[in-house]
Structure prediction request, 110 residues.
Amino acid sequence: VQLQAFGGGLVQAGGSLRLSCAASTRTSSRYSMGWFRQAPGKEREFVAAATWRGTRYADSVKGRFTIARDNAKNTLYLQMNSLKSEDTAVYYCSRGLSYWGHGTLVTVSS
Prediction:
């Protein structure tokens, strides 16, 4: 399984971005898929996940970020609104914590 994340970029605080993660194989709902991020000098942290039970979010992004998946397109999304400078990080997508894509950099300027 290969995952490719894209959609990152530079945005001002308060702005929005949508990340996409394209999978090389079918993304059945039985597989959990998620987004993680790693800020400079920090460890990788959980952001959001979409599982067969539903979605869940880190407290730091709850109410601002929305994760969604389109299994027909083998794609996972992360809609990020009301971005803050502390959201600056490299964002990674993962399937079941076993497969990881290359990250995409999100930079939020204050």
Observations:
- The chain is about 0% helix and 55% strand.
